[in-house]
Amino acid sequence: MPTVEQLERVLAADPNDTFVLYALAQEHAKRGNADAALAFYDRCLAADRLYCYAYFHKAKVLEGLGRLGDARATLAAGVVAAREAGDMKALSEISGALDLL
What we know:
single chain, Serine Threonine Protein Phosphatase 5, Tetratricopeptide repeat
């Protein structure tokens, strides 16, 4: 996996690259940088609101922060996005996470 610094250099060339925004969010989440992770998930979703797994993982970060209401709202938005995108796998996983929260 590329480093955060490498991903940021790639992002500089295309600030709306959803894959890179998502990858940066994931890296920051993995390192425990919740605020940065949430900011990159938000940027990813602003660039493509149907990037379904950004909702799932953003909700996991929010849950880890104890922000359960925000996590539920994020998952509910993810359910809508997954339905609209026709992504049944994401719909199943996001719905399941919402049911467990």
